[in-house]
Amino acid sequence: SSGINAEWPLRPGEEEPSDKIERVMHHRIGPKWQVGDITALSAEGKGLKCLDDVPQGNEARCPQYFIKWARYSHIHNTWETELSLEEKGCKGLKILENYQKKQQEIDEWKMNMSPEDIEYHDVHDEMKLNLISQYTIVDRIITHSTTKDEEGNTSIDYLVKWKCLPYADATYEKDTYLKKHYPEKIAAYEKMKNADTKPNTQYKVLGQRCRFVKSDVQPSWIPDGLSLRDYQLDGLNWLAHSWCKYPAVMATLR
To answer: How many Cβ atoms from other residues are within 10 Å of residue 176's Cβ?
Structure first.
């Protein structure tokens, strides 16, 4: 979700929640074996690019759905079947049911529409897929957290701002994935973190933070005739939330 709530974000060391469908991003008829965690980008799967894999010959195939999981970024999206979702015992199956009904309505609509209208719909669908693919690209690293396991091994999790998504959708990700795919983003973060122009963190006011209250209305200081867009209001809420809860995050903002 794009709003800030009590569950945002999933912090390092926090117990992982049970699987919950947040949104169905797309669908296809795909190879029966190509489902589950192996399709996620975070597991070195193909993610949305699985659409390019067409079942060959008599290879078993079935309807599959590209699932965005609650409290996880889009690099953890997986292709699932109805059966695999039931086996996971995940929550939010009603979301899948509603998606299926909507797709059925679209298929019925296409049967009565002109080729031009169908082409317009397909182009819009292709644009949506292109946008979804942008959600898996790291925009910048905001901050990091270090944790130790029971054996004393240290791991680093980075709070990532994703391309084309608001700061409210930032998520913590393992350093192993980022070191392999985005070493330049880690380098840029380290350079910024070690810069000589870091803000002073010794002011007493920094230890006296007020309680965060989400705002759904336009700020009073916006000039007449102007207004913030939804994503801008999300960003403003994220800044206020970070100021109240995560002082270290605010220190790293550009």
So the answer is: 11
